[in-house]
Design brief:
single chain, Rossmann fold, seven-stranded mixed β-sheet, disordered N terminus, VC0802-like, elongated, eight-stranded mixed β-sheet
Length: 384
Amino acid sequence: MHDAPERRIISGVSRRVPRLSHSFILMSPPRRRNAPARPQQLCEAEVVAGLKNQAASELRTRFGSDARLLRKARLDELPFHYRGELAALGTVGKSNAINLVQHFDIPRPAALLGHQHQTRLLRQIDSVRGLHDSGSFQSFRISAAGRDSTVMQRLRDAIASQTRLVYDEREGDLLLRIRKADLHNGGWEALTRLTPRPLSARNWRVRNLPGALNATIAATMIEMTHPQPEDRFFNLMCGSGTLLVERLLRAPVLAAAGCDTDPHALHCAADNLRAAGAADLAQLFPMDATRLDLPDASIDVLCADLPWGQLLGSHETNLTLYPQVLAEAARVAAPGARAVLITHEIRLMERVLRECADRWTLQQEVKVFQGGLHPRIYLLGRRN
């Protein structure tokens, strides 16, 4: 039996999470009095389809009147007018990426090769590069219909010549998208991503595993639990630690831990915790999520990215795994505890929830669209 988990979860002491590059503290910096208003710029967030409302809520909470959201029909895009510092947009946690948008009143992309429009485009690229340290961008790529056309090749050569960036069709870290105007009536739009990597590719993710959870989805799951500093938090089947890291970077916590039966997964999680500067804020244990070495009613928040039966596990093993995990989670959950779970095994999950309705109540269900799959997030409450 492992005594350490019980000591940590039951007797953890309150520790304040340090300020980190991705600490998603939901507040905006105070403005200086009489500071001149910054010019309004058009931006667009790329979001996980199904989590648009959560991404919009974060922008409103973080930036207040500096971010004025615009109506948009597509599920995976969130445009907004912005008057704040562009660099601050690189710290949001619930958008996959943020782009700076510029409209060109032109009939076709070939006009971008003209001096006036090309100069505007290069200024937009320079403004994004200026948000980061010198050398943060070494290469670029263009995403556009007909990117192999003569026009796009000439535009690519012009950008390479003027910026001294190397064109890399697959891995270019400065991403430029050119599309028919979507936010304006007519013309074309150029979108430049504000960061060298997508925001979903967290800086702390130095180790990855197949099927690892999208960090923006994980951040949303954590937010759904309404994090409190007195939480005793436990990540079942933690894998490479995405949910665990996102919780630690979100807010202070009384005690936090994760478990997995795979030693390699635990090593990956430990490396990611170190990269996030949170190695001393959580414990990792080699434990089976169906037989936790924890006392009854000892956890306030449980979370898990359950195996979907595709890259990990199988539908046959999930038939027995899911009921066992929910039952064991109910045993260690304190009265009123919250559990947030994600899975693509929708029918199985719904059946298991009906069978354990005396222990868990379904408080919220969110449909997500990711990579051609339609997983769902379930927020559960422990019945007293």
